[in-house]
Protein backbone atom coordinates (compact mmCIF):
# COMPACT_ATOMS: atom_id res chain seq x y z
CA UNK A 1 0.00 0.00 0.00
CA UNK A 2 1.35 3.44 -0.94
CA UNK A 3 0.30 6.62 0.86
CA UNK A 4 0.32 10.11 -0.64
CA UNK A 5 1.66 12.95 1.46
CA UNK A 6 -1.86 14.31 1.74
CA UNK A 7 -2.97 11.28 3.76
CA UNK A 8 0.23 10.89 5.72
CA UNK A 9 0.10 10.59 9.51
CA UNK A 10 3.08 12.61 10.74
CA UNK A 11 3.08 10.67 14.00
CA UNK A 12 4.19 7.63 12.00
CA UNK A 13 7.20 9.53 10.71
CA UNK A 14 8.14 10.52 14.24
CA UNK A 15 7.93 6.86 15.25
CA UNK A 16 10.01 5.80 12.26
CA UNK A 17 12.69 8.37 13.11
CA UNK A 18 12.99 7.02 16.66
CA UNK A 19 12.91 3.39 15.50
CA UNK A 20 15.73 4.01 13.04
CA UNK A 21 17.74 5.63 15.82
CA UNK A 22 17.07 3.06 18.54
CA UNK A 23 16.70 -0.03 16.31
CA UNK A 24 14.66 -1.57 19.12
CA UNK A 25 10.88 -1.43 19.59
CA UNK A 26 11.04 -1.46 23.39
CA UNK A 27 13.53 1.40 23.61
CA UNK A 28 11.65 3.33 20.92
CA UNK A 29 8.41 2.95 22.90
CA UNK A 30 10.18 4.33 25.97
CA UNK A 31 11.51 7.35 24.07
CA UNK A 32 8.09 8.03 22.51
CA UNK A 33 6.30 7.48 25.82
CA UNK A 34 4.06 4.90 24.15
CA UNK A 35 3.15 1.31 24.91
CA UNK A 36 5.26 -1.29 23.08
CA UNK A 37 2.23 -2.81 21.27
CA UNK A 38 1.35 0.68 19.97
CA UNK A 39 4.83 1.12 18.49
CA UNK A 40 4.71 -2.38 17.00
CA UNK A 41 1.37 -1.51 15.40
CA UNK A 42 2.79 1.73 13.99
CA UNK A 43 5.79 -0.15 12.59
CA UNK A 44 3.37 -2.45 10.79
CA UNK A 45 1.59 0.54 9.26
CA UNK A 46 4.92 2.03 8.19
CA UNK A 47 5.89 -1.24 6.49
CA UNK A 48 2.62 -1.19 4.56
CA UNK A 49 2.96 2.45 3.70
CA UNK A 50 6.53 2.19 2.42
CA UNK A 51 6.24 -1.36 1.10
CA UNK A 52 9.43 -2.36 2.91
CA UNK A 53 10.19 -4.30 6.13
CA UNK A 54 12.31 -1.34 7.33
CA UNK A 55 13.66 -3.18 10.41
CA UNK A 56 14.52 -6.89 10.50
CA UNK A 57 15.45 -9.11 13.48
CA UNK A 58 19.19 -9.30 14.08
CA UNK A 59 21.61 -10.83 16.58
CA UNK A 60 21.63 -7.70 18.75
CA UNK A 61 18.26 -6.14 18.10
CA UNK A 62 16.87 -5.01 14.77
CA UNK A 63 18.77 -4.15 11.62
CA UNK A 64 17.58 -1.50 9.14
CA UNK A 65 16.98 -2.48 5.54
CA UNK A 66 18.69 -0.59 2.74
CA UNK A 67 15.50 1.42 2.21
CA UNK A 68 15.49 2.36 5.91
CA UNK A 69 19.15 3.45 5.72
CA UNK A 70 18.31 5.70 2.79
CA UNK A 71 15.42 7.23 4.70
CA UNK A 72 17.22 7.98 7.94
CA UNK A 73 19.04 11.24 7.16
CA UNK A 74 16.42 12.92 4.92
CA UNK A 75 13.70 11.95 7.39
CA UNK A 76 15.66 13.37 10.32
CA UNK A 77 16.42 16.57 8.38
CA UNK A 78 12.78 17.00 7.34
CA UNK A 79 11.49 16.57 10.89
CA UNK A 80 14.08 19.03 12.19
CA UNK A 81 13.06 21.58 9.56
CA UNK A 82 9.40 21.10 10.41
CA UNK A 83 10.18 21.56 14.08
CA UNK A 84 12.03 24.79 13.36
CA UNK A 85 9.17 26.07 11.22
CA UNK A 86 6.62 25.44 13.96
CA UNK A 87 8.74 26.63 16.87
CA UNK A 88 8.01 30.05 18.43
CA UNK A 89 9.34 32.95 16.37
CA UNK A 90 12.58 34.32 17.74
CA UNK A 91 12.53 37.84 19.08
CA UNK A 92 13.91 40.50 16.76
CA UNK A 93 17.38 41.81 17.59
CA UNK A 94 17.83 45.12 15.74
CA UNK A 95 21.55 45.23 16.50
CA UNK A 96 22.08 42.09 14.39
CA UNK A 97 19.42 42.73 11.73
CA UNK A 98 20.38 43.10 8.08
CA UNK A 99 16.94 43.96 6.68
CA UNK A 100 16.31 46.31 3.78
CA UNK A 101 13.15 48.25 4.58
CA UNK A 102 11.09 49.42 1.59
CA UNK A 103 8.75 52.22 2.62
CA UNK A 104 6.36 54.21 0.45
CA UNK A 105 6.44 57.86 1.53
CA UNK A 106 5.72 61.19 -0.14
CA UNK A 107 8.01 64.12 0.48
CA UNK A 108 5.65 65.21 3.27
CA UNK A 109 5.71 61.76 4.92
CA UNK A 110 9.47 61.60 4.50
CA UNK A 111 10.05 64.96 6.19
CA UNK A 112 7.37 64.74 8.86
CA UNK A 113 7.46 61.04 9.75
CA UNK A 114 10.62 59.33 8.51
CA UNK A 115 13.31 61.91 9.25
CA UNK A 116 12.40 62.12 12.97
CA UNK A 117 12.82 58.33 13.14
CA UNK A 118 15.97 58.01 11.04
CA UNK A 119 18.56 58.72 13.71
CA UNK A 120 17.07 56.07 16.01
CA UNK A 121 16.79 53.52 13.19
CA UNK A 122 20.46 54.02 12.31
CA UNK A 123 21.72 53.89 15.89
CA UNK A 124 19.58 50.91 16.92
CA UNK A 125 19.76 48.84 13.72
CA UNK A 126 23.02 49.96 12.07
CA UNK A 127 23.22 47.08 9.58
CA UNK A 128 19.79 47.68 8.05
CA UNK A 129 19.02 49.74 4.97
CA UNK A 130 16.06 52.02 4.17
CA UNK A 131 14.62 52.57 0.70
CA UNK A 132 12.03 55.35 0.37
CA UNK A 133 9.73 55.16 -2.64
CA UNK A 134 7.09 57.55 -3.94
CA UNK A 135 4.24 55.28 -5.00
CA UNK A 136 0.91 55.87 -6.69
CA UNK A 137 -1.85 55.26 -4.10
CA UNK A 138 -3.62 52.80 -6.41
CA UNK A 139 -0.51 50.57 -6.35
CA UNK A 140 -0.02 50.47 -2.59
CA UNK A 141 -2.12 47.40 -1.78
CA UNK A 142 -0.64 45.30 -4.58
CA UNK A 143 2.94 46.33 -3.82
CA UNK A 144 2.54 45.62 -0.10
CA UNK A 145 0.86 42.26 -0.57
CA UNK A 146 3.37 41.12 -3.21
CA UNK A 147 6.45 42.03 -1.16
CA UNK A 148 7.60 44.98 -3.29
CA UNK A 149 6.89 47.21 -0.27
CA UNK A 150 7.08 46.61 3.48
CA UNK A 151 5.29 49.69 4.76
CA UNK A 152 3.41 52.73 3.48
CA UNK A 153 2.86 56.13 5.09
CA UNK A 154 -0.26 57.68 3.60
CA UNK A 155 -3.31 59.85 4.22
CA UNK A 156 -6.44 58.24 5.61
CA UNK A 157 -8.66 59.39 2.75
CA UNK A 158 -6.74 57.34 0.17
CA UNK A 159 -5.87 54.28 2.28
CA UNK A 160 -6.71 50.94 0.59
CA UNK A 161 -9.40 49.26 2.74
CA UNK A 162 -7.85 45.77 3.00
CA UNK A 163 -4.58 46.85 4.60
CA UNK A 164 -3.74 46.93 8.29
CA UNK A 165 -3.45 50.51 9.53
CA UNK A 166 -2.28 52.58 12.47
CA UNK A 167 -2.97 56.25 12.98
CA UNK A 168 0.15 58.38 13.38
CA UNK A 169 -0.72 62.09 13.44
CA UNK A 170 -3.42 64.58 12.60
CA UNK A 171 -1.90 67.34 10.52
CA UNK A 172 -3.10 70.92 10.30
CA UNK A 173 -2.32 73.64 7.77
CA UNK A 174 -0.43 76.88 8.38
CA UNK A 175 0.14 79.94 6.22
CA UNK A 176 3.75 80.61 5.29
CA UNK A 177 5.75 83.19 3.37
CA UNK A 178 9.26 84.55 3.42
CA UNK A 179 10.45 86.31 6.58
CA UNK A 180 9.95 90.07 6.09
CA UNK A 181 7.04 89.61 3.66
CA UNK A 182 5.08 92.89 3.69
CA UNK A 183 1.74 91.06 4.02
CA UNK A 184 2.64 89.93 7.54
CA UNK A 185 3.50 93.36 8.95
CA UNK A 186 -0.09 93.79 10.13
CA UNK A 187 -3.02 91.52 10.89
CA UNK A 188 -3.93 89.59 7.76
CA UNK A 189 -7.61 89.84 6.89
CA UNK A 190 -9.42 87.23 4.85
CA UNK A 191 -9.72 89.68 1.95
CA UNK A 192 -6.00 90.46 2.07
CA UNK A 193 -5.31 86.72 2.17
CA UNK A 194 -7.30 86.21 -1.03
CA UNK A 195 -5.53 89.13 -2.74
CA UNK A 196 -2.06 87.64 -2.20
CA UNK A 197 -0.34 85.54 -4.85
CA UNK A 198 -0.41 81.90 -3.73
CA UNK A 199 1.61 78.84 -4.58
CA UNK A 200 0.20 75.34 -4.26
CA UNK A 201 1.45 71.77 -4.14
CA UNK A 202 -0.18 69.47 -6.68
CA UNK A 203 1.22 65.91 -7.05
CA UNK A 204 1.38 66.19 -10.83
CA UNK A 205 2.36 69.87 -10.80
CA UNK A 206 -0.69 70.90 -12.79
CA UNK A 207 -3.45 71.55 -10.24
CA UNK A 208 -4.39 75.03 -9.06
CA UNK A 209 -6.98 74.22 -6.37
CA UNK A 210 -6.95 72.33 -3.07
CA UNK A 211 -8.72 72.16 0.30
CA UNK A 212 -8.02 75.85 0.93
CA UNK A 213 -9.98 76.77 -2.18
CA UNK A 214 -12.86 74.57 -1.08
CA UNK A 215 -12.94 76.35 2.29
CA UNK A 216 -12.90 79.74 0.53
CA UNK A 217 -15.62 78.70 -1.91
CA UNK A 218 -17.87 77.84 1.04
CA UNK A 219 -17.54 81.51 2.05
CA UNK A 220 -18.16 82.72 -1.51
CA UNK A 221 -14.49 83.68 -1.93
CA UNK A 222 -11.54 82.72 -4.10
CA UNK A 223 -7.79 83.30 -3.98
CA UNK A 224 -5.15 83.91 -6.65
CA UNK A 225 -3.04 80.78 -7.26
CA UNK A 226 -0.15 81.54 -9.64
CA UNK A 227 2.26 78.62 -9.09
CA UNK A 228 1.75 74.86 -8.92
CA UNK A 229 4.62 72.54 -7.97
CA UNK A 230 4.75 68.73 -7.60
CA UNK A 231 6.03 68.49 -4.00
CA UNK A 232 6.18 70.39 -0.71
CA UNK A 233 9.96 70.82 -0.73
CA UNK A 234 9.72 72.76 -3.99
CA UNK A 235 6.86 74.76 -2.54
CA UNK A 236 8.90 75.83 0.50
CA UNK A 237 11.84 76.74 -1.71
CA UNK A 238 9.57 78.91 -3.85
CA UNK A 239 8.34 80.78 -0.75
CA UNK A 240 11.88 81.57 0.36
CA UNK A 241 12.75 83.05 -3.03
CA UNK A 242 9.64 85.11 -3.81
CA UNK A 243 6.72 87.06 -2.37
CA UNK A 244 4.40 84.12 -2.86
CA UNK A 245 2.59 82.63 0.12
CA UNK A 246 1.27 79.11 0.60
CA UNK A 247 -0.87 77.03 2.92
CA UNK A 248 1.44 74.21 4.03
CA UNK A 249 1.21 71.25 6.46
CA UNK A 250 2.59 72.38 9.81
CA UNK A 251 5.28 69.71 10.13
CA UNK A 252 6.83 70.76 6.83
CA UNK A 253 7.46 74.21 8.32
CA UNK A 254 9.51 73.14 11.32
CA UNK A 255 13.17 74.12 11.12
CA UNK A 256 12.48 76.70 8.39
CA UNK A 257 14.02 79.90 9.84
CA UNK A 258 13.71 81.76 6.55
CA UNK A 259 9.91 81.58 6.65
CA UNK A 260 7.24 83.46 8.55
CA UNK A 261 4.52 81.09 9.76
CA UNK A 262 1.07 81.87 11.13
CA UNK A 263 -2.44 80.44 11.25
CA UNK A 264 -4.49 81.11 8.09
CA UNK A 265 -7.40 83.57 8.46
CA UNK A 266 -10.01 80.82 7.98
CA UNK A 267 -10.33 77.22 9.16
CA UNK A 268 -8.89 74.71 6.68
CA UNK A 269 -9.53 70.99 7.29
CA UNK A 270 -6.38 69.03 8.03
CA UNK A 271 -5.69 65.36 7.35
CA UNK A 272 -4.77 62.15 9.17
CA UNK A 273 -1.58 60.25 8.37
CA UNK A 274 -1.60 56.47 8.65
CA UNK A 275 0.90 53.65 8.64
CA UNK A 276 -0.24 50.84 6.29
CA UNK A 277 0.98 47.25 6.01
CA UNK A 278 -0.26 43.88 4.68
CA UNK A 279 -1.64 41.00 6.74
CA UNK A 280 1.41 38.86 5.85
CA UNK A 281 3.65 41.14 7.93
CA UNK A 282 1.27 41.86 10.79
CA UNK A 283 2.95 39.50 13.28
CA UNK A 284 6.48 39.63 11.88
CA UNK A 285 8.78 40.67 14.78
CA UNK A 286 11.07 42.77 12.59
CA UNK A 287 8.17 44.61 11.01
CA UNK A 288 6.49 45.14 14.38
CA UNK A 289 9.73 46.68 15.66
CA UNK A 290 9.92 49.14 12.75
CA UNK A 291 6.24 50.12 13.10
CA UNK A 292 6.56 50.69 16.83
CA UNK A 293 9.75 52.73 16.44
CA UNK A 294 8.24 55.08 13.84
CA UNK A 295 4.96 55.44 15.73
CA UNK A 296 6.62 56.18 19.07
CA UNK A 297 9.06 58.66 17.54
CA UNK A 298 6.32 60.50 15.66
CA UNK A 299 4.16 60.58 18.76
CA UNK A 300 6.99 62.05 20.82
CA UNK A 301 7.20 65.01 18.42
CA UNK A 302 3.47 65.34 17.72
CA UNK A 303 2.84 67.88 20.46
CA UNK A 304 5.88 70.04 19.77
CA UNK A 305 4.43 73.41 18.71
CA UNK A 306 5.77 75.15 15.67
CA UNK A 307 7.19 78.63 16.21
CA UNK A 308 4.90 81.26 14.69
CA UNK A 309 5.69 84.93 14.16
Description:
- Helices cover 40% and strands 21% of the residues.
- It is of the alpha/beta class and 309 residues long.
- The chain has 3 domains: 5-86, Winged helix-like DNA-binding domain superfamily/Winged helix DNA-binding domain (Arc Repressor Mutant, subunit A, Orthogonal Bundle), CATH 1.10.10; 100-169 and 272-302, D-Maltodextrin-Binding Protein, domain 2 (3-Layer(aba) Sandwich), CATH 3.40.190.10; 173-269, 3-Layer(aba) Sandwich (D-Maltodextrin-Binding Protein, domain 2), CATH 3.40.190.10.
- The protein has a 5-stranded mixed β-sheet with strand order 4-3-5-12-6. Strands 10-7-11 form a 3-stranded antiparallel β-sheet, covered by helices on one side. Strands 1-2 form a two-stranded antiparallel sheet.
- Strand 8, helix 8 and strand 9 (224-229) form a beta-alpha-beta unit.
- Helix 1 (10-22) crosses helix 3 (36-50), helix 1 (10-22) packs across helix 4 (66-86) and helix 5 packs across helix 10 (285-302).
- The model has no long low-confidence stretch (mean pLDDT 90).
- Residues 8-65 form the HTH lysR-type domain.
- InterPro entries: LysR-type_TF, LysR_HTH_N, LysR_subst-bd, WH-like_DNA-bd_sf, WH_DNA-bd_sf.
- This is LysR family transcriptional regulator.
Amino acid sequence: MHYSLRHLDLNLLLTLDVLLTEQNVTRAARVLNLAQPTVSLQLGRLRDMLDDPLLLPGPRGMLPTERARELRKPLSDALAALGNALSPVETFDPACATHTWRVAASDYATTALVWPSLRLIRSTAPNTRLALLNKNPVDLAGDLESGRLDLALHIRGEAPPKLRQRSLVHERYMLAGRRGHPAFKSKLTLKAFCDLEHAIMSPNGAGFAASTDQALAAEGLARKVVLSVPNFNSLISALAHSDLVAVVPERMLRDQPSLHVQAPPLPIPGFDMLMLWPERLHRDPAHMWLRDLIASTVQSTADVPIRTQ
